[in-house]
Amino acid sequence: MHTDTERCVRAVQSKDARFDGWFYTAVLTTRIYCRPSCPVVPPKPENMSFYPSAAAAQQAGFRACKRCRPDASPGSPQWDERADLVARAMRLIADGVVDREGVPGLAGRLGYSPRQVERQLLAELGAGPLALARAQRAQTARLLVETTPLPMADIAFAAGFASIRTFNETVREVFALAPTALRERARPGPRTAAPGTLTLRLPFRQPLNPDNLFGHLAATAVPGVEEWRDGAYRRTLTLPYGHGIVALSPRPDHIDCRLSLTDLRDLAGAIARCRRMLDLDADPEAVDALLREDPQLAPLVDKAPGRRVPRTVDADEFAVRAVLGQQVSTAAARTHAARLVLAHGEKIDDAGGGLSHLFPSVAALAELDPGSLAMPRTRRATLTGVIAALASGGLHLGVGSDREEARARLAELPGVGPWTVECIAMRALGDPDAFTPTDLGLRRAAARLGLPDTPAALVKHSAIWSPWRAYAVQYLWATDDHPINRLPTN
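The chain above was modelled as a monomer; its predicted structure follows.
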């Protein structure tokens, strides 16, 4: 969008928050870059320049605005919608792959050479993978500086910087303030009492309907791994450097996020996973506008706009849970998953809460005895087949995976039918166009609305909902009186 100057100028002049994260406005006279909704008086159009990423603006010599904090705006919805190389790379960078494995590691996961990845990111985003990762490190550093009492040296390494000197130079360059001045300038209020515990605000584009989003996560929660407590969805996280516990609560203009981490180097990755799980980078205006074009769906959208697709923090975990949920009730699927957790999950401490385990890794599950599973033989075979494919590396479902290739690999596994493939595509792979026409609840909802209710006819009709069919599924499911559609009240 940043190449459409006229449209960008109109968005800036109207302070349209819908475009935050889509592009960044650089002011040539002040050398500051802002989000489109910045509250200051808009500059003259001739003094504006537009960039596709915060990293590109920083690389061009602009520093972040202290008023609108553009580095903290919601991410571009393109990276969830698209499935090409650039989108896959952006999802991996957000997950911290460049910080952990470098550009060669990023390229290896994508199946391209480092030079090809660099060239494509530069062409589209105006910044290479190192610059994009640096911008993310700067944002992580600012979060730690402003919300924790940690020493600056600890913050530098937790944010992913190789040295304190690089940390200091980057913070000064990006925010035009030294780290200590940044901390002093932060809004007054209580900081985190204990190292490793953070309270954050996760932004999103309005509107957001939390009912089916948090209702689904709470209703399907696996005991010991997830729970709803004191108005928050809480769960354990398995992260590259350790583990964590997150509590997420919906608020009118943000998601309240409380993170407890065993290693602060996991902060950026944990935030990215929580944002993906809650689909916070979606563009609800674009989604709802398209779905309203269908007369049968329009009343549902108008009644409760801004529905999101509940996703996952761990794609492998969800694949296992999707198989456990085949042809059984929500309660039965939770029971099966809880048994796996108790038998194979790593125990953790949760002071004052009810979480006790991490969901078992596929490596741990690969050692399980199929005979110990209380389920039909065919489903046991399906489960062990999926686990073996994930453990061996023959099946990749991570944020950087190729969605169509993953679908094809899943479909080759015995017992993995179209419903399971599309559920995994929707919630684990994050495909906004995933569709489950054989789902019984979806077909019942379609029949009640006068839509076709046979799978083939429903697929044909759903073409007008593309590329947002996963969101149409949420609106249709929400017509049923089921706990997954209700925000818990206690």
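The radius of gyration is 23 Å.
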